[in-house]
Each structure stands twice: as C-alpha cells, then as structure tokens.
Amino acid sequence: MSEAKIVLVTGAAGGIGSATVHKFSQSGWKVIGVDRRPYDGDFPSDGLFILADISKPEDITAIYEQAGAFSPTLNAVVNNAAVQVSKAIVDTSIAEWDMVIASNLRSAFLGAKFAHPLLVKAGGGAIVNVSSVHAVATSINVAAYAASKGGLLALTRAMAIEFAKDDIRVNAVLPGAVDTPMLRDGMNRGQHGGSSLQERLENLARKTVNGRIGQP
To answer: For residue 50, what are the β-bridge partners?
Structure first.
C-alpha cells in the first residue's frame, strides 16, 4: 500500500476550507489544516490542525515548521484562507486594507516560499490558490478583497511559470456565489436589495446562470 499523500489547507475552519479538508481526507490524504479559528467538529485523526493567523509572517514560519515536523514532504497546498472587509473605498482604513492584503495575498506568497522545498522533496506536486469571481467581476464596497483576489490570480500565473521546472503545478479557482459564513456576512452591502438576509440570498441566486447559490 502506497504512503498517504499530504496536503496543507489554509482557512480550514471555513465553509470551503472545511469541505476541502473532508474531500481530501475521504480520498485517503493526510491533511494539515490551518486557521485562526478553532476547527468546528472533529479534524481528521491522522492529520494535524494548526491554530495560527496567516496574516502574520511569524505565524506562517511557525506553520511550516510544524508541517515539516509532521511530514518531510508535501504533495499539495491549498491557499484558501481569506478575510473580507465590506466597506466603501473612502471608508476603508489603511490598517483594514493592509490586513486584507496580508491575509489574502501576502500569505500565499510566503506560503509558496515555505512550501516549495517540501513539494520539491516529494518530487513535485500542486498548489491551488482560491481566488474569487471578484478578481474579474466585482461589486460595491469590497475593493480591498477584490484587489487581493485579483493579485492572487496574477501571482498564480507567476508561480506557475517559476515552479514548472520543479514539476509543481499552480492553478487558481475563482468561486462565485457559495453559501459560506463569509458570503452571508457580506450580504449587507446593499448590492442585492431585499429587506432580509433570505431575500438578499434569493436575489443573488437569481443572478446566477443556474438560479442557485453553490454549496461548499
């Protein structure tokens, strides 16, 4: 029986992150999960959950030190963690802007630096950066998030070029409307109308090509 592959998933406690953890675990992978919030439920018993804030460079250093102690190699990394500030550009503070960029974009850059040697040791692998539809088509009061996700898309292309020689594939996925806590928290920006959260969700669903909001 071949040894289980190892994946590191950031934002593992969130909607898409926890679904990603379960998918890899069910497929026989060992999962290293990272989040600044505790994991809701039982994390896979053969994996490792690290409580850390990927917006802080020192925490990313510590994350990969713990990952390296858990396994000398990595087969895949999913850079999924993200935060969103729902404010108009003129109302967004420098601190809020910097926090969003640090969490959503700089973390993927630093994660790639630290993950690269572990992926090389495995003979290659894959990095998946979870960008967003906001990278290419955004809406009001979410500029910092849109900028960070657009930057992540460009970073993905650059990483793919640089890491190809090491047999490391780098791709981005751009989720649209997916029913997660982040989506629901951002439904008060006034972009979808409606007097209640449920009405706003229904209005958003009607804007999608298949008339529904996705599930993680």
So the answer is: 34
Class of residue 216 by CB neighbours under 10 A (exposed 0-12, middle 13-18, buried 19+) = middle
pLDDT of residue 23: 96
Give, in order, the Cα–Cα distances in Å from 65 to each of 6, 57, 72.
15, 13, 10
Strand, helix or coil for residue 2: coil
Q: How far is CA 176 from the centre of its chain?
A: 14
The DSSP bridge partners found for residue 129 are: 79, 172
Average pLDDT, the chain: 90
Give dist(CA 182, CA 7) in Å, integer: 23
Pairing of strands 168-173, 30-35: unpaired
* CA angle at 29 for the pair 116 and 24, rounded to the nearest 5°: 95
What is the amino acid identity at position 99?
M
pLDDT in tens, 138-154: 888 999 999 999 999 99
Catalytic-labelled residue, pool 145, 159, 175, 180: 145
Q: How many CB atoms lie within 10 A of CB 101?
A: 17
Q: Is 145 a catalytic residue?
A: yes
